[in-house]
Amino acid sequence: xxxxxxxxxxxxxxxxxxxxxxxxxxxxxxxxxxxxxxxxxxxxxxxxxxxxxxxxxxxxxxxxxxxxxxxxxxxxxxxxxxxxxxxxxxxxxxxxx
Length: 97
Hints:
61% helix, mainly alpha
């Protein structure tokens, strides 16, 4: 029931609120949002950030609906360049180009 409430409220939120939820939870909420996509504004806001949290990057890499632009942005981050496991996760992502 909680997952359905989260999913419904996520779809009704603005791009900034979606980004804040993802960042505050370090991407843990993405497992409950499987199958949902994010809009261009949310993607753009996520792509403007620098990422140092390995947990956040891992959770985004495990999320099947992560947009290709976000995957490409994450692959350019220093944390990913230094971590072979993260690099491999992002290279194997279904939306990696």
